[in-house]
Amino acid sequence: MHGVIAVFFILLATLPPLRPELQPEEVRRLVLRAQKGESQALAQLYEAFVQRIFRYIAYRVASSADAEDLTAEVFLKMVEGLREYRWTGAPFEAWLYSIAAARVIDFRRRSTRRQHSALSEELSADEAHPEEQLQAAQEVDMLRQALRALSAEQQTILVLRFIQRKSHQEVAEIVGKSVTAVKSIQHRALIELSARLGSSEKVRHYLRGSSDV
Predict the structure, then answer these.
(1) Nearest-CA neighbor of 7 among 198, 160, 166, 188?
(2) Residue 120 has what DSSP assignment?
(3) Is residue 213 part of a domain?
(4) What is the DSSP letter of 19?
(5) Euclidean distance between CA atoms 83 and 134, whole angstroms
(6) Does a structural domain hold residue 123?
């Protein structure tokens, strides 16, 4: 599915780089401190994960404003539930992603009209010409719409793999499935995504090749 991956990388080119990830033991120490009421540890957890949670949500809802609101709700839920949080062997961020997924599902149930993606603030305008920015925005918008047509599980795995740049093993730990299952779901999702994007003139030239990812 090299063509579909090319579209993902067009999307990635419009985004600022992610903050470096904290090591699991660093996260564990911060969580333990935050559970004791240390506001600085809470702030550090927020800074460590807010960008990733925002990106995860932003490609599953229609506008950046909605994504910002839902991201704020996720971290409010984190603060409210942190004292009861217990380590289960899964990464701490798996808990955050589960909260984010629930907020997105709830938002979609409540939302009856969300069609346009507000992408202008996410486009990196330093180098690109206006025409290139417009084309990139259109391609990213098509990709977002195609992503939102997939199942919640497929969306989660594709966003974690290609937007968050997680390995298959990391995704498996976050979603609680085997690496084999993650690869299978990813493969089926890319086939569906390729079919949806392949119907569009503007992205058809990216949809070449049929190698497995």
Answers:
(1) 198
(2) G
(3) no
(4) P
(5) 46
(6) no
CB 120 within 8 A of CB 67: no
pLDDT reported for residue 21: 76
How many domains does the chain contain in total?
1
Task: State the CATH number of the domain containing residue 200.
Answer: 1.10.1740.10
Instruction: Please give the Cα distance from 154 to 80 (Å, whole number).
Output: 29
Of 166, 165, 167, 211, residue with least CA distance to 191: 211
Give a yes or no: residue 18 inside a domain. Answer: yes
CB 212 within 8 A of CB 3: no
Q: What is the pLDDT of residue 201?
A: 44
What residue numbers bound the domain in which 69 lies? 2-115+134-206
Where does 68-175 show beta strands of DSSP type E?
Answer: none
The tokens describing 8, both together, are: 């993902």
Residues constituting the chain: 213
**Any idea which residue has 């090749």 for tokens?**
209
Which tens digit of pLDDT belongs to each residue from 145-180?
A: 788 888 888 988 988 887 788 889 989 988 889 999
pLDDT of residue 17 exceeding 60, the answer is no
